[in-house]
Every structure is written in structure tokens, then in C-alpha cells.
Amino acid sequence: MRLTTAQALVRWLLAQHTELLDGTTAPLFPGVFAIFGHGNVLGLGNALEEHRDELPVWRGHNEQGMALAAVGIGKATHRRRVGVATSSIGPGALNMVTAAGVAHANRLPLLLLPGDTFTSRAPDPVLQQVEHFGDPTTTVNDAFRAVSRYFDRITRPEQLLSTLPQAARVLTDPADCGPVVLALPQDVQAEAHDFPDALFTPVVHRPQRQRPDLRALTAAADAVRTARRPLLVLGGGVRYSGAAGRALRFAEQHGVPVVETTAGRTLVPHDHPLHAGPLGITGSTSANVLAAEADVVIAVGTRLQDFTTASWTVFAPDARLVSLNAARFDAVKHGALAVVADADEALRELTDLLGTWRASSAWSDRAAAERARWDAHVDGLRASGTGLPTYAQVVGVVNAASGPEDYVMTASGGLPGELIGGWRAVGEATMDVEYGFSCMGYELAGAWGAAIARKDGVVTTLLGDGSYLMLNSELFSAAFAGHGFVAVVCDNDGYAVIHRLQTGQGGAAFNNLYDDCRTPHAKPPRTDFAAHAAAMGCAVFPVDDLGGLTEAYRAAREVARTEHRPAVVVLRTHPAAWTEAGAWWEVGVPETSHRAEIAAAHAEAAAGKSRQVRYLNP
């Protein structure tokens, strides 16, 4: 059929479907976030309008925000559905680069369709075009190359025939999953071609479950059998495989304590006797204690980033590492004995090979005992006291009111540590802590996407005042579009967690808390977050103290559920009270300084580096 490039692309989007974790099918692309400009309003915009009843289009108000909302859809659906965002060329396109970085770092699917300049170059230079003096083929969209798993610039309509299958491969592949960017020159969007009908035949994408190589799996089983103190580490790959149940059965059959990474949080019921808690800097002392004593670490579906490994000081120097991962890139890291496979398949077959082998009960009993100590510590942090509420207390209130269908999220500042370390799972795979890229502003935009994707329960996002000020425009987008969620805004007067890092490593308090920032005002202005959120179309619930938070949060949940708009809870929180797991983190402490405190911190950093394990034993 004769279609423009844009028309063909939209029809292809409509033809793609996906198999969800429960075995049902749904459209792969649930909708498109769009801000139209001269580079996409006529070609792609008209094509989307033709199918407005079949493919929802939501208007964003900041390109970064709407693209982050698209990322939120991918995470909330466990990578089974893909958010799409389109912009014009120039500043609109470049605004989406950050969102592509979020998707890339977190291995999440995202389809970006930025407009591009004319391939004919006849009207050059056009509005919003950045000219490159030495390479006329370069446009601002080349900035996406560093943060894309697949990038293409469509300079002829028929190129869709070869690039769309590759785009679908990356968006649905367990190993290669990440952002796809198809740059669309505005003249090519409008050009027509005789496309084969077969391009638009409905397709159901079923993520492949790669089985492990038998030799590699046998070697892994041999390594595990030597363990006296094995430890099972569950990452995001377990979530995306739907393998949480399989992982627990493996742990139970073989008596192996279980810990979780950031992306793996809420995969294990909190009170399970083998659950030792979350691992790493923002994790728990309980998990870190077991990791330090483990002799064989079975890491499943994790890339083992520095917050999980405490900059590679959390494991014993003589520990052996067995890595089960769908991506060979991740499986071979740090000298691991690599098993490249789907998490569910690998754990099933490894269980069969291990047979009746079990770790000692004395070791497996440690998990519950250590976690009980950590729970008591968190209980103490959550207990009511005088003064401003702490993050731990706020998380405790939200946790207590949440059910198994609810979904909680955050991204930056101090709240990731509070959710990762202090949250007690009430439902499987019900947390999104964007701590791969730790993108300020994802909290609100990603919550919009999660609210679109999740039909059951209430989405709650927790954020600080800094993230709110960084990117709040999608509050209005969500209110306008009728997507309800709860945002709990914790105002602690600045970038408090970076202030902690700054002063904790010997630096002077500078440019983080408002008290330490340059201003000519004796009484600087303060943001009225409640008034601002109300002006964006949200319901607002200002809270003066911890005592009023429970009632306000429950009321906000009801508004989000029944009025289909964001409900924002605002309260002042303590700027210097944190949940600490006692792990070390490598940061760049200056080797020379005018401050004695920094010199002392550098010496401590050197001591920490001496404990780093750069390469574990396969």
C-alpha cells in the first residue's frame, strides 16, 4: 500500500503486540508521548492523528519529562511494553537525550522518534538546525548515539523495511534491551513508498528464554557444591524473566540465603526466612554481613554496579563468583564463571544438577537472624520522635498503608537509600528505584508512565524538593490526561544527600543546602510546593508533622484512585537523618587540599581502596 514514511511507521507500531508475564497479550506500544514542532507535526503528527482512536497520544510539556514517562512504562511492565516519545529537531530532540541515558543505564526499552533536518538540504540552514562546519551529515540527533542501543537515521522510506525488525529486536531482547532512536528527517517523513502489506501483519513478541550451555552450567554446579556459605544475589534480570518464584524455590531446596540488588528489590517476601535483605551501600547491614562471609556468590540477572557491591568491597577477597545472566556482556564481568541464559531457565536447570545438595542449616539460619537485627534497627528509625520527620519515618508511613497491588518509586537524592534499605515488600516486583542513572526528575515523570501502565493499585513516588524543582511539568500532563498517582514531596531545604557527601568527605558546606548558597536576600524566597502543585491541577495535602502524614497519605491515595489526577503530599523533613548500611563507597576525594578534613578523608579513601576486590575467583 502506498504510504508516507510516517504513516507506515505508525501502522507498524499498531501491528506489534507482546506477551505479558501472565501469558496474555497486549499492544507492545501502549501509546505515544508527543510534543509537536515543525519537524514532526506534519509528517508523524498527521499519521498519528489518523489512528488517534487506536494509538493514544499524550501531550507532554517537557520532552525530557515525557520521554522519562515512556521509560516508566517499560519498568512498570517489566520490559514487556514500550513507551514511545516524539519531538521536533533541535532543543526538543536534545531534551530527550537524558531519558535515553536512563533507559540505557537501566537496560529498559524506549522508542524515541526525534525529527531531523532535511535530507535534501535545499532549505538549509533551517530553524533549530545546528550546522557542523566539517560534516554536513551530522545533526544534533547524533548526540543520541552515545545513549542508544540501536540508532538509525531514516533517509529513505524503504529503509523502514530493514530497520524496524532490528528496532523490535532490541526493544524485546532480554540481553540487548535498551533505547532505540529512529531519527526522522521531516522531508522523509512525508515521502511516500509502496510498502508491502506484510510489514503490517500483526506480530506477537514473546521474549526468548535462552537455555544455558550445559558445560557452563555443569561447571557452575560444581562450583556451588564446594560452597559452605553460598549466597544468592537477585537482580533486575530475575524480575524481567518473571523468575522470582523460581529463585525462591531454588533457595529453599538448597538452603541458600537470598539478597537483592536495587533492580531486584521486592522480588522476595520480606519475612521469608532465607531473605537477608538488600545488598550494598543503600542496602542493609544484614545482607552485607552475609556477603562478607560468603564463599560462593551466585549472581542472577545483575550487572553488579558499585552501589550493590560497595565499590567491590562487600564480598570476601577469596569468594568465587558464578554469574547467571541473559547478557554475556554482564555475565563475564569480574572474572565470573559465566552462564549465559534466561534467569528462570538457568535456575531450573541448575536446581536439577545440584539435586539434593544443601548448604548447612547453620548458614541458612543466619539470613533470618541478621535480617531480624536489621528490621529492629529500621523499626527504631521509624519510631516517632520530636522534630522534623525523617525520610525513614515517611517511608514507614507509606509502607504501612501500601498493599500488594501498589507500586512505589523514587530516583535520586537520599530517598533511594531509604526505599532500598528500609522498605518491606508487600507485593512482588512493586518497586522502581531508578538508581542506574539516578536521574533527578524521573520521580514525577516516571510515575506518570507507571500510572498509565499499571491498572491495579496506587502508584506512589517519593521525592525531594530538589527533584521537584528539577522537572515538575509532567504533573500537569498527568492531571490533564487523567492519570492519578501520589507524590510525596519531602522538603529538606536543598540537595541534602550531596551536602552529606560533601561534608562527610571533609568538604565545607557549599552550594547544596540553601543556607550555604549565594543570595543577596536576608530572607530568601521559598517554594510553596502545595500552591504550585495545585496550580498544576493536582490535589494537594500539606502536612505539618509526622502525626498528620498517615491521614494525608490515605486521603491522597483515594484522590489518585477516584479523581484520576495526581495527589501531592508536601511536608518538611529532616535534612541530616539517614538509613545507613555501613558500607563503603568510592568517590573522588582530592589528594591535596587546603582543608585538613579533606586530607583525612583521602586517607580513609585510600584505606577503602585497599579492600577492593578487582577480580573474583571463577
UniProtKB/TrEMBL annotation:
Gene3D superfamilies: 3.40.50.970, TPP-binding domain. Keywords: Thiamine pyrophosphate. Residues 218-350 form the Thiamine pyrophosphate enzyme central domain. SUPFAM superfamilies: DHS-like NAD/FAD-binding domain, Thiamin diphosphate-binding fold (THDP-binding). Pfam families: TPP_enzyme_C, TPP_enzyme_M, TPP_enzyme_N. Residues 39-128 form the Thiamine pyrophosphate enzyme N-terminal TPP-binding domain. CDD domains: TPP_PYR_POX_like. Residues 432-569 form the Thiamine pyrophosphate enzyme TPP-binding domain. Belongs to the TPP enzyme family. This is 3D-(3,5/4)-trihydroxycyclohexane-1,2-dione acylhydrolase (Decyclizing). It comes from Saccharothrix mutabilis subsp. mutabilis. The gene is iolD.
